Amino acid sequence: MTDPAFPEEPFSAPTPIELAATPLTVVRYEGIGLEGLPAAFDEGFPALGNLVGSGALDPTGPALAMYHGDPDGIFDLEVGFPVATALAGPLPAGDVSVVGSQLPAGPALATTHVGTYDGLGAAWADLTAQAAASPSGVWIEVYVTDPSEAPEALRTDLILPVKA
């Protein structure tokens, strides 16, 4: 069975889904803002990539970022991958610590943005405007395509967990 957070095909429109508590392996950043994203991504994803390359980490899906809190203000960030089993304890990876986490189980609204990352803000605004329920304070971006692909072809699935 396919995890509803990681479909093969893009979401055709805002789509209600039921998230499973999928285990994740992540690098966690606390109390950052939008200006801190480039540094967090540039540090976290290469560290995770080194673990994948060494065989210490075996992702079961695409890279993702999970924002906790106000994405326009100060928030906590997790960057990582879904895995079959979350880590039992921290795993050092260069200058960062990789830890276990999970997607929040429950109702969510999902859509797909195709294009540059610069368009994600507008895509989030559209998704949030169409949510019938209140956002839960967690915002998930799933980076389905490799960032080295042509910017206009990048696929990012946006998942907005909502209060039941």
From TrEMBL:
Highest taxon, organism lineage: Bacteria
Pfam (any one): GyrI-like
All residue ranges annotated as the AraC effector-binding domain in the record: 12-163
InterPro entries, alphabetized: AraC_E-bd, GyrI-like, Reg_factor_effector_dom_sf
SUPFAM superfamilies: Probable bacterial effector-binding domain
SMART domains: AraC_E_bind
The name this protein goes by in its record: GyrI-like domain-containing protein
Organism listed in the record: Tessaracoccus lacteus
